[in-house]
């Protein structure tokens, strides 16, 4: 601290406290302030909005808002795991639980809120949890493995998030809501009804107007008793009944609170003490406590600006929100509770598709006041921007509602929005700011706009609007949007597809010579591999293609946490023999795999070691299974109902046709994954209209729907033809699918492909039905070629000893090691030991001597790790030297060899040898298969912007022997072995993944 600096103590380091620190780093250019932050939790700020995703990846690091080094770089003092316990206003000192006493000039209270737990008898029992922190979620996960049923008390926003978590844990899930509707603060009665129906379709049971009277059980939860006398048998309860501001610190030091809690603040975020400020969920402004992150961010930004001399006032915040709850879109914006005296509302409700739209217009119909969207929130960005702008609408309310066709498109898109329209509500970024960044800062991509303006860096929901605005602004400025695939190819995927097709190019080396330069990368190599597969249908694990593949395709399995893989056999149409079910169970038990029945009518087995995959698949293939291509950008499943075979409503044999469709299109590579479904009647039990290709049976055939998507951005498929025979259906699907394969950009779903297609569905019909381009015969021929040349990729591996050897864990030994995942016991950022000698080895203390210097001063040795032909060309493989795993890369196209540590320094998993190698501006690199960070193979530095590095080692080729120049085994083991890494004082525990 310099003498002229003033001290700001920030109490609470959640999302809002972190945002304040970010803005102080940005605004305090003269470094007027010293920032000291107290963080009660055992880790720095993380994305609490994305907390539910923790159940999928279970990696706290993925939620972190900044690396710990960032705070040090800014000169901020961050005290993790230390709670501020007292504010001595007279002496202007903040005291902490660990005994710190920090004198302050200003205090910022960002203590947030705590979950409200109603005083229900029995609530103290084991098995009752709240849903607030990562620690809460870890406890829920652990306890959830012991029970079969769970209930969530509270049907609001967080309650439904908690229900999703319980449901994802495989528990029978119940939502208990005292109010007569779900999400009573955001959704009206009709919208709640749609939401309830959609959630119950998933299998979650919703109990509305239900109050809990007692939690039953002897020491632990065994059930619930309700006020109406009913009971529910559950083994776990998650309470999500609202929040209360954490204002106890302010109360204890005499700062004025509201009558029901919350720290009173004025428009400058100041409390009753002029030196103390409050922001976020603890602050009470004009009788309002904001429970959303966006208003807290706005408070943080305005306070930082005020303290740095730019006076701004907080005049209330927009409560608009867009969420996906249990897979259902829910959004509300503007004044969605406007009464009839202030607004007139129009409603569009479709209970068959589960969509609800209610928009509130000013009495004269000229302005959009607010709205509620359930089931489809694709228009949220445009509608909310117009509501916030408060300007006259460019179309009539009936047009905007879609009553005359068009819907939100009648507003004219981003071009028609006023400059003041707020595009990103999380970070309060306007259209004018984004346009200025594109024009004045010359941002040349949506990612550059995001980095420059922070638009889209919050919840990410505005990125489609940011992208649309970017494209429109670039067009207005007359600038060309760079659509090059990557630095190695100045072509789009479609152009490369045409080059390969016309010139019969079927390998990457020839494609580089013909159309590119350099050595390729993790973008162009998998793209080229997909093109070759779509044109020539070679087995993708053939040596000339294998190292082009991302790790999932390279090892024919989806990589998971810690470098393990999944095993997903194909089950066409969901039809499976009893003996096959038995084999799946036997394999799961034999290899210790976790099993799960998926929404795509398959059984997934998780946790397989790479070296076990060929043996597992040998047993599955013997039982009649084949690859399910869950790892590929290809057809995943064709879901079906039971159809006319068993259902009294079925009008066609949907199971038989689903099997026929799946067996026709299995293994066909495409720009992105594809999902299909066949429903035996209009009751739509197979959910065909949310698939890339959906078939719904009629009395005379099938209706074909195309380009739907039930993923992150749901889109109902479009009806392209009706009452087709099975033969006509297959012919039309051949054409649409092959046209998609030939023309879509990389990693583009069919839904996005159609949305971006000029002319949309009408143009697609003209091509595949009317044959406008005269290519229908060619599309059918190409598809038939792919069908005729299909091979099960796993059978090709199982039957070929050379391909099986490719899955061996280490090139130089038949030994194998368990997959070890490095987990910090408190979830904090681990110190980097990769460049330090670990332990007390040869007199070298931890952290005292650089590993590189230690290697120089010690005697090195040459260790033979294999023959030249043991390593894949232009790829890597792992070797074991003592207790250490190393990755060896044969960069054949450069005539070079490299060796590095095999453990990824970010995810702490032994996977670098499986990464794609290439170059960036002529620097040879490897791309980690887990998170895509790129590391220089020459220096080990991370060249994708992250603060990581890896150790590298010289490689020597003597005749046919591959030899590594390494330090003594003691030094090598001390620095890089799993065993000694855990003994270097890093407070870690090892957990087998």
Q: What's the arrangement of secondary structure elements?
A:
Layout: E1 6-11, H1 15-27, E2 33-39, H2 54-57, H3 68-74, E3 77-80, E4 84-88, E5 93-96, E6 101-103, E7 106-109, E8 113-115, E9 128-130, H4 134-144, E10 149-153, H5 157-168, E11 172-177, H6 189-201, E12 205-208, E13 212-216, E14 223-226, E15 231-232, E16 236-239, E17 243-245, H7 248-252, E18 263-264, E19 276-278, E20 283-284, H8 293-307, E21 321-325, E22 328-334, E23 343-350, E24 355-362, E25 368-374, H9 380-389, H10 397-401, H11 413-416, E26 422-424, E27 429-430, H12 431-439, H13 446-453, H14 463-476, H15 493-503, H16 508-515, H17 524-536, H18 543-546, H19 551-554, E28 565-567, H20 578-591, E29 594-597, E30 603-608, H21 613-622, E31 635-640, H22 643-646, H23 654-665, E32 674-679, E33 693-698, E34 701-706, E35 718-724, H24 726-743, H25 750-756, H26 760-768, H27 776-788, H28 793-798, H29 801-805, E36 820-824, H30 851-857, E37 861-867, E38 875-881, E39 884-891, E40 896-901, E41 916-920, E42 923-927, E43 934-936, E44 952-953, E45 955-958, E46 961-966, H31 969-976, H32 978-981, E47 988-992
Parallel strand pairs: 1-2, 1-7, 2-3, 7-19, 9-16, 10-11, 10-16, 11-12, 18-20, 31-32, 32-33
Antiparallel strand pairs: 4-5, 5-6, 8-17, 13-14, 14-15, 21-22, 22-25, 23-24, 24-25, 26-27, 28-30, 29-30, 33-34, 34-35, 36-47, 37-46, 38-39, 39-40, 40-44, 41-42, 42-43, 45-46
Helix pairs in contact: 1-8, 12-14, 15-17, 24-27
């Amino acid at each position: 601290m310099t003498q002229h600096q003033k001290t700001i103590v920030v109490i609470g380091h959640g999302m809002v406290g972190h945002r304040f620190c970010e803005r102080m780093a940005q605004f305090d250019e003269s470094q007027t302030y010293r920032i000291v932050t107290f963080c009660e939790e055992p880790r720095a700020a993380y994305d609490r909005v994305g907390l539910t995703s923790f159940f999928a990846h279970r990696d706290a690091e993925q939620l972190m808002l900044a690396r710990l080094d960032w705070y040090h770089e800014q000169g901020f003092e961050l005290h993790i795991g230390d709670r501020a316990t007292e504010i001595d206003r007279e002496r202007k000192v903040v005291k902490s639980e660990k005994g710190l006493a920090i004198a302050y000039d200003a205090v910022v209270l960002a203590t947030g809120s705590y979950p409200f737990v109603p005083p229900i008898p029995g609530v103290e029992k084991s098995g009752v949890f709240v849903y607030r922190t990562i620690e809460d979620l870890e406890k829920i996960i652990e306890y959830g493995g012991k029970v079969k049923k769970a209930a969530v008390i509270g049907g609001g926003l967080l309650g439904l998030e908690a229900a999703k978590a319980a449901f994802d844990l495989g528990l029978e899930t119940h939502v208990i809501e005292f109010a007569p509707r779900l999400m009573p603060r955001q959704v009206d009665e009709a919208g709640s009804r749609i939401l309830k129906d959609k959630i119950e379709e998933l299998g979650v049971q919703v109990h509305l107007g239900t109050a809990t009277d007692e939690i039953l059980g002897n020491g632990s939860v065994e059930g619930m008793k309700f006020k109406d006398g009913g009971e529910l048998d559950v083994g776990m309860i998650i309470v999500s009944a609202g929040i209360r501001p954490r204002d106890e610190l302010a109360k204890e030091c005499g700062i004025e609170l509201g009558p029901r809690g919350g720290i009173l603040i004025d428009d400058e975020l100041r409390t009753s003490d002029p030196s103390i400020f409050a922001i976020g969920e603890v602050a009470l402004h004009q009788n309002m406590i904001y429970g959303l992150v966006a208003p807290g961010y706005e408070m943080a930004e305005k306070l930082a600006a005020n303290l740095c001399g730019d006076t701004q006032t907080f005049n209330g915040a927009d409560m608009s929100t867009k969420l996906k709850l249990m897979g259902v879109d829910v959004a509300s914006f503007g004044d969605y509770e406007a009464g009839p005296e202030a607004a007139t509302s129009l409603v569009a409700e479709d209970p068959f598709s589960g969509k609800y739209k209610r928009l509130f217009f000013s009495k004269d119909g000229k302005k959009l006041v607010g709205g509620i969207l359930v089931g489809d929130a694709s228009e949220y960005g445009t509608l909310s921007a117009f509501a916030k702008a408060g300007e006259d609408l460019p179309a009539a309310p009936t047009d905007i509602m879609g009553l005359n066709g068009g819907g939100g498109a009648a507003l004219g898109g981003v071009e028609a929005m006023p400059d003041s329209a707020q595009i990103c509500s999380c970070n309060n970024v306007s259209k004018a700011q984004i346009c200025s960044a594109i024009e004045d800062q010359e941002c040349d991509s949506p990612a550059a706009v995001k980095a420059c303006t922070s638009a889209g860096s919050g919840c990410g929901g505005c990125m489609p609007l940011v992208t649309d605005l970017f494209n429109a602004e670039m067009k207005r400025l007359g600038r060309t949007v760079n659509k090059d695939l990557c630095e190695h190819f100045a072509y789009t995927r479609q152009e490369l597809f045409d080059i390969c097709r016309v010139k019969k190019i079927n390998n990457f080396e020839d494609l580089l010579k013909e159309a590119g330069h350099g050595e390729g990368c993790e973008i162009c190599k998998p793209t080229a591999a997909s093109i070759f597969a779509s044109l020539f249908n070679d087995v993708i694990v053939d040596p000339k293609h294998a190292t082009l593949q991302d790790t999932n395709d390279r090892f024919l399995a989806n990589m998971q946490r810690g470098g393990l893989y999944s095993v997903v056999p194909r089950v066409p149409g969901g039809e499976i023999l009893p003996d096959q079910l038995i084999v799946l169970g036997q394999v799961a038990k034999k290899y210790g795999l976790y099993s799960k029945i998926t929404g795509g009518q398959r059984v997934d087995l998780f946790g397989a070691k790479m070296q076990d995959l060929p043996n597992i698949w040998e047993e599955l293939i013997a039982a009649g299974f084949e690859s399910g291509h869950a790892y590929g950008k290809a057809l995943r499943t064709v879901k079906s109902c039971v159809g006319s075979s068993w259902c009294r409503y079925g009008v066609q044999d949907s199971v038989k046709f689903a099997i026929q469709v799946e067996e026709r299109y299995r293994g066909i590579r495409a720009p992105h994954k594809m999902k299909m479904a066949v429903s035996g009647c209009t009751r739509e039990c197979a959910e065909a209209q949310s698939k890339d290709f959906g078939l719904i049976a009629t009395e005379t055939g099938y209706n074909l729907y195309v380009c739907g998507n039930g993923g992150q951005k749901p889109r109902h498929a479009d009806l392209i033809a009706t009452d087709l025979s099975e033969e006509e259906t297959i012919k039309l699907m051949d054409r649409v699918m092959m046209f998609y394969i030939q023309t879509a950009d990389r990693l583009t779903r069919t839904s996005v492909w159609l949305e971006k297609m000029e002319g949309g569905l009408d143009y697609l019909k003209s091509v595949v039905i009317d044959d406008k381009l005269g290519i229908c015969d060619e599309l059918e021929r190409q598809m038939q070629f792919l069908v005729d040349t299909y091979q099960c990729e796993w059978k090709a591996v199982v039957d070929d000893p050379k391909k099986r050897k490719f899955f061996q864990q280490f090139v130089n030994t038949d030994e194998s090691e368990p997959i070890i995942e490095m987990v910090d016991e408190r979830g904090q950022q681990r110190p980097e030991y990769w460049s330090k000698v670990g332990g007390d080895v040869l007199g070298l203390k931890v952290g005292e001597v650089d590993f590189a210097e230690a290697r120089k001063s010690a005697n090195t040795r040459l260790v033979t790790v294999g023959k030249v032909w043991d390593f894949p060309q232009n790829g890597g493989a792992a070797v074991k030297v003592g207790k250490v795993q190393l990755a060896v890369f044969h960069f054949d196209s450069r005539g070079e060899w490299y060796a590095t540590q095999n453990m990824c320094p970010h995810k702490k998993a032994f996977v670098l040898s499986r990464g794609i190698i290439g170059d960036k501006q002529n620097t040879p690199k490897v791309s980690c298969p887990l998170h895509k960070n790129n590391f220089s193979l020459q220096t080990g530095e991370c060249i994708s912007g992250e603060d990581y590095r890896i150790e590298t080692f010289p490689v020597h080729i003597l005749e046919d022997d591959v030899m590594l120049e390494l330090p003594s085994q003691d030094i090598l083991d001390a620095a890089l072995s799993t065993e000694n890494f855990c003994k270097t004082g890093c407070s870690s525990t090892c957990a087998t993944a």
